[in-house]
């Protein structure tokens, strides 16, 4: 019921909810939160998470912290956080990967390098596990 109400309110509520879940991952274990995330359209969820990640990278560039060797682990953590939020929604993780791949060429090299490194590391980790769990990032 809460999920339906939030979904009816649409995009206005999605951004604050995702911001909260990205900051407080422990909330993702709650069934009500998972149900809310399942009810949002995968496209909307993935687009918001993509914007979060791209915005995070842009913020690092503007704050003069654009060293790919330093930032790759941090971006990897942000990518994992976005994937954890997307995970309850069956189609959102794959859509997130697709959107990130589409956005990579348009990013400045300083942002592209750490994001590509994080995507590569995640893909390698998934291949090592021998399963993709529906997350096809590359």
The number of strands is: 0
Q: Low-confidence parts, pLDDT < 50 over ≥5 residues?
A: none
Structure annotation, total helices: 7
Order of helices and strands: HHHHHHH
Q: Report on the biggest sheet.
A: none
User: How confident is the prediction overall: mean pLDDT?
Assistant: 79
**Radius of gyration from CA coordinates:** 15 Å
The proportion of residues in beta strands is under 5%
Query: Distance between termini?
Result: 36 Å
Structural class: mainly alpha
Shape summary: globular
Note the quaternary state here: single chain
Percent helix: over 70%
Architecture blueprint of SSEs:
Layout: H1 2-9, H2 11-23, H3 31-39, H4 42-62, H5 68-86, H6 92-103, H7 109-129
Helix pairs in contact: 1-3, 2-4, 4-5, 4-6, 4-7, 5-7
Keywords:
7 helices, 138 residues, mainly alpha, globular
Overview of this protein structure:
- By secondary structure, the chain is mainly α.
- The protein is built from 7 helices and no strands.
Concise account of the structure shown:
By secondary structure, the chain is mainly alpha-helical. Helix content is 75%, strand content 0%.
């Amino acid at each position: 019921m809460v999920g339906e109400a939030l979904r009816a309110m649409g995009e206005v509520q999605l951004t604050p909810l995702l911001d909260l879940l990205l900051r407080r991952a422990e909330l993702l274990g709650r069934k009500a939160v998972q149900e809310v995330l399942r009810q949002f359209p995968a496209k909307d969820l993935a687009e918001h998470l993509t914007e979060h990640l791209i915005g995070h990278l842009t913020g690092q560039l503007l704050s003069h912290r654009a060293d790919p060797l330093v930032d790759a682990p941090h971006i990897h953590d942000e990518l994992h956080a976005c994937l954890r939020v997307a995970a309850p929604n069956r189609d959102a993780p794959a859509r997130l990967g697709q959107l990130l791949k589409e956005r990579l060429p348009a990013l400045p090299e300083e942002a592209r390098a750490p994001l590509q490194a994080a995507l590569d590391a995640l893909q390698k980790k998934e291949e090592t596990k021998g399963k993709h769990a529906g997350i096809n990032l590359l």
